[in-house]
Design a protein that fits this description.
There is one protein chain. The protein folds into two domains: about 45 residues; about 50 residues. With about 110 residues, the chain is mainly α. Helix 1 crosses helix 2 and helix 3 runs antiparallel to helix 4. The chain has four helices and no strands. It comes from Mucilaginibacter jinjuensis.
Length: about 110
C-alpha cells in the first residue's frame, strides 16, 4: 500500500535554506529528537505556531526505560522459574522487592 497522494495545496514545493552555527544546530537537533520530529519539522512547527513542540521522552529517559524493560523481562523469567520449582524459594522476597522497585522507577519516568 503506497503513501496517499496530497492535494496540490498540501504539497511542500518551496525550499528555504537557513544557516545555523554548530551550537544552534546541536540545540535544534536535541529539541527535535526529544520531540520525536525531524529538525525541519521541529523548526517549521516552532516558526508557525510560536510554541515548542511537545517533548516526548528525552533520549536518556528512553534508553533508561528500554533498559528497565529488559530487566523486567529477566525478572519475569526468574519468577516463572521460581514458580515451576527450578529456582529456590529463598529468592521470592528478593524478586518481589526488585519487581516493586522496577515498577516505581517506571512510574517516576512516565510522570
Amino acid at each position: 500500500m503506497g503513501r496517499p497522494t496530497l492535494n496540490e495545496e498540501e504539497k511542500r514545493v518551496i525550499q528555504v535554506n537557513i544557516r545555523l552555527t554548530i551550537d544552534e544546530n546541536k540545540i535544534a537537533c536535541k529539541y527535535a529528537e526529544a520531540s520525536g520530529l525531524s529538525s525541519a519539522n521541529w523548526i517549521r512547527i516552532r516558526a508557525f505556531t510560536g510554541r515548542f513542540p511537545a517533548i516526548k521522552l528525552s533520549p536518556v529517559d528512553a534508553s533508561l526505560y528500554q533498559e528497565l524493560h529488559k530487566i523486567g523481562i529477566n525478572l519475569n523469567q526468574a519468577v516463572k522459574q521460581l514458580h515451576t520449582g527450578k529456582l529456590s524459594p529463598a529468592y521470592l522476597n528478593i524478586l518481589t522487592a526488585l519487581m516493586k522497585t522496577q515498577g516505581e522507577i517506571l512510574n517516576c519516568l512516565l510522570k
